[in-house]
Amino acid sequence: MTAYRLDVLSLAPDSFQSLNELGVIGRAFSTGIADLNLYNPRNFTKDSYHKVDDEPYGGGVGMVLKTEPFFEAFESIPALPKRRVLMMTPQGNKLTQNDLWRWAKEYEQLVFICGHYEGFDERIRTLADEEISLGDFILTGGELAAMTIINGVLRLLPGTIGSAESLVDESHADGLLEHPHYTRPEIFRGLNVPKVLLSGNHAAISTWRQEKREQRTKERRPDLYELWVAKEASNKTRIDLSGFTSVPFRIGNGYDIHRLVTDRPLIIGGVRLHHPEGLGLDGHSDADVLIHSLMDAMLGALSLGDIGKYFPPNDPQWKDANSLMLLEKVGCLIKEEGWKVVNIDSVVIAERPKLKPHIDAMRQNIADKLGIETSSVGVKATTNELLGAEGREEGISSHAVVLLEKT
Prior knowledge:
Blueprint: E1 4-9, H1 24-30, E2 34-39, E3 53-54, E4 64-65, H2 67-75, E5 83-94, H3 97-106, E6 109-114, E7 119-120, E8 130-133, H4 143-154, H5 165-169, E9 187-188, E10 191-192, H6 202-220, H7 222-236, E11 249-262, E12 266-268, E13 271-273, E14 279-281, H8 289-301, H9 307-310, H10 323-336, E15 339-349, H11 359-370, E16 377-382, H12 388-391, E17 395-406
Helix pairs in contact: 3-4, 6-7, 8-10, 10-11
């Protein structure tokens, strides 16, 4: 097994030697589960004083850590494929048990950047993937925070802790604090071990422990308890689809765009419109982009292809065809497959003409051809803010989303 790699940039690297004396954490290093490497930015300075800090630009109290030694120290560290760089700073996100699990499971290398003095030159922050804080308080440096994370991550690695089950039941593992523990003697200075723990009834013991976990969390950490309650409620409201042999709904997406040209009608949603420049949409049929995007969405929901498959642009019978008639044919095909249209949401992108006055008529045309309520048809209009083909009035496009239900 490859050792989990830990690399630390610190101006006080000797402080990390104490990790070797922390029981199972020390054994994780000695048995090759993890490997700790220390880098002092002072060793990467160029001046004889090994200066790693300087006065801040703009004035102010304190000294700021310089970019050069930290960048050079960082760039000397070998990078494994699954690496995460953590900066220890009171400005970071608060450390949680979920963070420790995530780093232990998803990565094979953690790099720690520990600060001192007033803080980092802001450009050093660009090295970090995450900024982490132990809480809303200030320490003299980031070493204690880094050692805390190293401790928390190593104990989650396979082989560090003897019993993997002990990691599951402990505090914060699932959002609750841990239940009370007792051992011999049964009675100590008038304080008795709860009888349920002596009963041998494992189901009753499990229930008691869960009740105590909830009670203790509610009393000591009401913030955690509220989050746990919300999570439990969310889990209970999830829909169980295991009994379905097929999905009762399908969603389809459609898109179409046509060029604006002279000597062609401008028809959208079955409504004939007037363009200020006398332009219309170029196409084999009437080039109604709204209806075409809608038909593609319906066919796509059932993996039936697109409108070109059913109404080829080289087929004379569809020359200048009314797209509403084509929509009706697609609607019949959907019904033959055993589905019905439940909802339509569409948007037309055009600079001109203004479509809003005609939206209700478009919705009614679509609803009539599909045999559904007008309230089930959504049509919106927008411009492209003078950008792209639509913005330059080279064309008009449409997007559509359709929800189908099995009948």
